[in-house]
Amino acid sequence: MNAVGSVAAACTTVSFVPQLMRVWQRKSPRDISLSMFLLFSFGVACWLVYGVGIRSGPVIAANAITLLLALAILALKVRYDRRS
Amino acid sequence: MNAVGSVAAACTTVSFVPQLMRVWQRKSPRDISLSMFLLFSFGVACWLVYGVGIRSGPVIAANAITLLLALAILALKVRYDRRS
Question: Where are the alpha helices (DSSP H) in A1-84?
């Protein structure tokens, strides 16, 4: 079961890379929901606090990376929305 | 710590609702990455299997709802991309 959990964590974390690339390349994030990425980033930050609280290395690592990716998408969304 | 975990699960799950609403209303999912939602849905499905494996009700519930929302966004993405 730990292998399934590792695959799950890897996929849900890495999945934000193509979204970040797409926003970066197209410079058009209008179809992306600001509310989604605000709420999602807050949720992932809570997962990070939870991981620290239960001292789980995998939970900390997966959520730290996901948080960085989600915040990067959020930053590009705000930046490009202001321009247009 | 369980409270933090619950808030985290609620936020990361509910965050997909505004994204689904946005795609549904605008009927324009071009800025959304297909790769992201394919990989993310597969990852969440793995989390679901993991939750069943470790018999964790909260992991099963949160990921079942997230999977439905992610698949709905994916279905709309494919549908509207074909039209345009």
Answer: 2-14, 16-26, 34-53, 57-83
Q: How confident is the model at residue A1 (pLDDT cuts 50, 70, 90)?
A: confident
Residue B10 contacts A, CB cutoff 8 Å: yes
Q: Which of B31, B38, B53 sits opposite A4 (nearest CB)?
A: B53
Per-residue model confidence as pLDDT tens digits over B20-72: 999 999 999 999 999 999 999 999 999 999 999 999 998 999 999 999 999 99
User: What size, in residues, is chain B?
Assistant: 84
ipTM: 0.92
The pTM of this model reads: 0.94
The per-residue DSSP string of B10-66 comes to HHHHHTHHHHHHHHHHH---TTS-HHHHHHHHHHHHHHHHHHHHTT-HHHHHHHHHH
**Which of A4, A49, A50 is nearest residue B49 as measured by Cβ atoms?**
A4
**A contact test, residue of B2, B13, B15, B81 with most A CBs within 10 A:** B15
Contacts of B38 in chain A (CB under 8 A): 15
B11-B13-B14-B19 Cα dihedral, nearest 10 degrees? 120
How large is the angle between the packed helices A2-14 and B34-53, nearest 10 degrees?
160
